Task: inverse folding
C-alpha cells in the first residue's frame, strides 16, 4: 500500500499541494499585505490560483498585496507553470549529474507523457528557453511603457503571460492597452509559447531553426500546431461575429478584430482580458467556455482537456460518421490505448464540470427562484470551466462566492492544473486488474 501512495504518479500531486500550503501560509502573513487582512480561505484560494496558474482572484493583486506578497505570487506562478517536479529534478541533475529512475518517470509522465526522453538535456534547454523568452518579453514591455510596466511589473506580467497564469497588477487587466497592437502582440507570443508545450517548442527550434538541414516535425507537433492554429482562427472569427452583430453601430473594425484575436488566444488558458468579460454577449461567453474547456497542449503551462484530446475526439466522431474502423489523424491511425484515454478524459472532465456546476447552483442561490437569478447559470458554468481549464477569466462571480463555492473552485483549479488524466492514472495505479472477461452482448443505442 505504501508503494501505491508514494509513486511517480503521486509525487506531483504531493509537491503541488505542499507548495500551495506553504504559499497560503506566507500570503496570510501581514508582510505579504498592504495593511489589510486576509482570511485563511482567501489566502489558500490565491495560492492555489497562482500555483495552478489560473488567475482567478478574490482580492485585487496590485492593491491588496505588498511588493513582497506580489513576489510570492510571482514565485508560485513560476513554480506552477514549469512544474514542481521539473524544478526538483533539475536540482538533482545539476547537483549529482544524474537522476533516479523515479524522477525520470515522474517528470516524463507529468510533462511529456513519455518516460524515455533525455531528461537532463531537456530540462537544461527548457529552463534556458523559458528564462530567455520571459526576460525578452519583460524587456519589450518595459521599453513600450516604462511607467506602467516598471521593471518589476514587466517581469511579473511577462512570467504571468508565459506561464498562462493571467495574474495582473492592474485591476482592469489589459483593457488599458486594448488598442495597442504591440502590447497585444507581446502578450500573444508569450501566451502561445507557454501553451504549445515545451517539447513542441524545443522540436521547432531543433528541427526548423537550429539545424542547417531542415527536418520534418513529428506527428505530435504537427497535430498540436494545426489544432492550435485552427482554434485561434476559428475562435477569433466566432467571437468577432458575436460581438460585431451585438454592437454594429459603434464598433471599431480594427479594434474589434484585435480584441477578438486576443480573447480567442487568452481564453484557452491565459486569463488576461482586453475587454470587460461581463459585458460580452452570451454567444461570446458560450464560445469562450468551449475554448476554455479545450485549453492548451500537453506538457505546457495550459490546462483544459488539451488540443490533442480535442483533435482525437473530432477524428473519432468523423471516423464513425464515414464508417472508418480506425481513428485517423493526419497520416496515422491512433492506437486504441490513446483513444480510450482521450475519451475517458473527456467523460471525466464533463462529469467533473457538471458536478461542480450543480454544487455551485445549490450554494450560490439554490433557494432563489429562477426568474430572480436569470443569467446565474451561465455565470457559474463560465466560472467552473475557467477554473477547470486554469484560465482565470471571470464575469465577476469569484469574489462573491460562498465558502463552499470557493472550496469547489480551489479543487477544480488543482485538478485542472495537474490534469484529470494524472488523477485517473493515479487511481488506476491503486486498482487491481481483473483476470477474466465478462460475456458480451449488444444493446440498442439511440
Result:
Amino acid at each position: 500500500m505504501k508503494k501505491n501512495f508514494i509513486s511517480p504518479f503521486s509525487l506531483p500531486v504531493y509537491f503541488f499541494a505542499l507548495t500551495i500550503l506553504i504559499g497560503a501560509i506566507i500570503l496570510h502573513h501581514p508582510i505579504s499585505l498592504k495593511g489589510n487582512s486576509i482570511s485563511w480561505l482567501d489566502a489558500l484560494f490565491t495560492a492555489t490560483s497562482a500555483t495552478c496558474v489560473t488567475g482567478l482572484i478574490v482580492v485585487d493583486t496590485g492593491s491588496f498585496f505588498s511588493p513582497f506578497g506580489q513576489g510570492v505570487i510571482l514565485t508560485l506562478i513560476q513554480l506552477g507553470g514549469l512544474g514542481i517536479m521539473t524544478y526538483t529534478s533539475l536540482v538533482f541533475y545539476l547537483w549529482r549529474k544524474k537522476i533516479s529512475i523515479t524522477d525520470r518517470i515522474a517528470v516524463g509522465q507529468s510533462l511529456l507523457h513519455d518516460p524515455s526522453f533525455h531528461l537532463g538535456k531537456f530540462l537544461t534547454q527548457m529552463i534556458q528557453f523559458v528564462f530567455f523568452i520571459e526576460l525578452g518579453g519583460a524587456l519589450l514591455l518595459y521599453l513600450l511603457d516604462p511607467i506602467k510596466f516598471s521593471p518589476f511589473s514587466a517581469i511579473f506580467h511577462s512570467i504571468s503571460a508565459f506561464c498562462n497564469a493571467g495574474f495582473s497588477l492592474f485591476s482592469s487587466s489589459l483593457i488599458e492597452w486594448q488598442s495597442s497592437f504591440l502590447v497585444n502582440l507581446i502578450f500573444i507570443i508569450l501566451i502561445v509559447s507557454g501553451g504549445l508545450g515545451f517539447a513542441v517548442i524545443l522540436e521547432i527550434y531543433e528541427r526548423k531553426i537550429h539545424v542547417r538541414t531542415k527536418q520534418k516535425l513529428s506527428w505530435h507537433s504537427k497535430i498540436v500546431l494545426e489544432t492550435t492554429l485552427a482554434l485561434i482562427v476559428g475562435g477569433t472569427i466566432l467571437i468577432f461575429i458575436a460581438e460585431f452583430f451585438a454592437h454594429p453601430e459603434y464598433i471599431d473594425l480594427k479594434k474589434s478584430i484585435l480584441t477578438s484575436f486576443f480573447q480567442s488566444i487568452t481564453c484557452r488558458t491565459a486569463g488576461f482580458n482586453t475587454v470587460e468579460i461581463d459585458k460580452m454577449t452570451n454567444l461570446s461567453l458560450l464560445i469562450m467556455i468551449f475554448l476554455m474547456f479545450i485549453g492548451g497542449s500537453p506538457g505546457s503551462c495550459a490546462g483544459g482537456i488539451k488540443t490533442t484530446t480535442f483533435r482525437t475526439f473530432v477524428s473519432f466522431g468523423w471516423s464513425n460518421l464515414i464508417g472508418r474502423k480506425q481513428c485517423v489523424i493526419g497520416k496515422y491511425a491512433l492506437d486504441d490505448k490513446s483513444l480510450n484515454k482521450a475519451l475517458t478524459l473527456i467523460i471525466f472532465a464533463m462529469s467533473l464540470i457538471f458536478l461542480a456546476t450543480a454544487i455551485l447552483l445549490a450554494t450560490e442561490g439554490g433557494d432563489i427562484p429562477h426568474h430572480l437569478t436569470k443569467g446565474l447559470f451561465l455565470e457559474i458554468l463560465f466560472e467552473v470551466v475557467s477554473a477547470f481549464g486554469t484560465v482565470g477569466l471571470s464575469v465577476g462571480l469569484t469574489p462573491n462566492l460562498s465558502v463552499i463555492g470557493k472550496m469547489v473552485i480551489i479543487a477544480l483549479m488543482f485538478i485542472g492544473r495537474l490534469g484529470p488524466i494524472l488523477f485517473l492514472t493515479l487511481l488506476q495505479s491503486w486498482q487491481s486488474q481483473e483476470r477474466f472477461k465478462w460475456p458480451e452482448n449488444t444493446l440498442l443505442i439511440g
